[in-house]
């Protein structure tokens, strides 16, 4: 099942945007049969009832990611959502050349390690190797630990593409901020830990048996190529004698062009990685 491509990353990092662009690019390259699945399975598409439970927990009055009981139950429910959906995914992915997942097995591990760290910091020391952190995480799943191992073993050939969170820092945050990239995520005390943990999975991928095909696409890195051109254009607009309305419209257009350029470079890179992975 090496045709499964899972897009992972923090909330509002651009997974959906990149998935839609990559789908179009792959089709242009002649790869027409592209499947898609999104976790959590809120609507029970796979037949799993756990996706709805995840949704209910997220909207319940008892939601508290600093509470031991809630965090463990939430982690177990997320795991069971994927475990019960796995048979559906195994059958479906055989129908396609590429089967794209909007989150799969990497994100739950990252989030669970970070939130477990908030409750048991002495056990989840972030300086430990990723493999040890995952082992400790699996222990917290209790009697369904074996299901987690079975799940990771079944899909260990999958490719995981981590999208760095745009808007998290630097130029991208200041210049290409939109309504979705609110301060809510940036102010989360755990957001930095989440981003760091994704990075560690990428750095240590060769030593982690179950999820070893990990690559990270950095928006910030690609944006650096456009930074100088953008700033020069902004200065020229500000120094011009345009009316406020015209200048504002020009800035909006420039912002849109910059986003499009960065997304295009990221999409081309991701598409190339996918084609190499599936051998097409």
Please name the defining characteristics of this protein.
280 residues; globular; 9% strand; 58% helix; Rossmann fold; five-stranded parallel β-sheet; 5 strands; single chain; alpha/beta
Structural class computed from helices and strand pairing: alpha/beta
Question: Can you tell me the CATH architecture?
Answer: 3-Layer(aba) Sandwich
* CATH structural fold name: Rossmann fold
Strands of the biggest beta sheet: in what spatial order? 2-3-1-4-5
Overview of the structural elements:
The protein has one domain (4-222, 267-278): 3-Layer(aba) Sandwich (Rossmann fold), CATH 3.40.50.300. Strands 2-3-1-4-5 form a 5-stranded parallel beta sheet, sandwiched between helices. The chain is 58% helix and 9% strand. It has 280 residues and is an alpha/beta fold. The chain has helices spanning 15-28, 50-58, 68-93, 106-119, 130-140, 145-154, 170-175, 183-186, 191-203, 219-239, 244-278; strands spanning 4-8, 34-38, 98-102, 159-163, 214-217. It is globular. Residues 167-187 have low confidence and may be disordered. The chain starts with a strand and ends with a helix. It is built from 11 helices and 5 strands, in the order βαβααβαααβαααβαα. Helix 2 runs antiparallel to helix 3 and helix 10 packs antiparallel against helix 11 (244-278).
């Amino acid at each position: 099942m090496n045709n499964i491509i899972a897009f992972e990353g923090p909330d509002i990092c651009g997974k959906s945007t990149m998935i839609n662009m990559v789908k179009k690019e792959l089709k242009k390259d002649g790869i027409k049969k592209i499947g898609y699945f999104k976790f959590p399975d809120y609507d029970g598409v796979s037949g799993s009832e756990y996706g709805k439970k995840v949704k209910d927990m997220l909207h319940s009055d008892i939601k508290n990611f600093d509470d031991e009981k809630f965090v463990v139950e939430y982690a177990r429910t997320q795991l069971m959502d994927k475990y019960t959906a796995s048979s559906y995914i195994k059958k479906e992915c055989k129908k396609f050349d590429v089967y794209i997942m909007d989150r799969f097995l990497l994100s739950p591990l990252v989030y669970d390690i970070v939130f477990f760290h908030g409750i048991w910091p002495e056990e989840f020391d972030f300086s430990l190797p990723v493999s040890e952190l995952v082992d400790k995480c699996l222990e917290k799943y209790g009697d369904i630990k074996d299901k987690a191992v079975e799940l990771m073993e079944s899909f260990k050939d999958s490719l995981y593409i981590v999208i760095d969170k745009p808007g998290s820092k630097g130029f991208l945050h200041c210049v290409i901020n939109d309504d979705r990239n609110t301060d809510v995520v940036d102010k989360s005390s755990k957001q930095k830990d989440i981003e760091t943990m994704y990075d560690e999975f990428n750095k240590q991928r060769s030593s982690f048996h179950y999820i070893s095909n990990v690559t990270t696409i950095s928006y910030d890195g690609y944006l650096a190529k456009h930074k100088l051109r953008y700033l020069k254009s902004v200065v020229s607009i500000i120094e011009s004698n345009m009316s406020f309305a015209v200048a504002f419209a020009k800035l909006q257009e420039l912002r849109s062009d910059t986003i499009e350029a960065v997304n295009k470079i990221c999409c081309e890179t991701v598409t190339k990685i996918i084609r190499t992975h599936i051998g097409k």
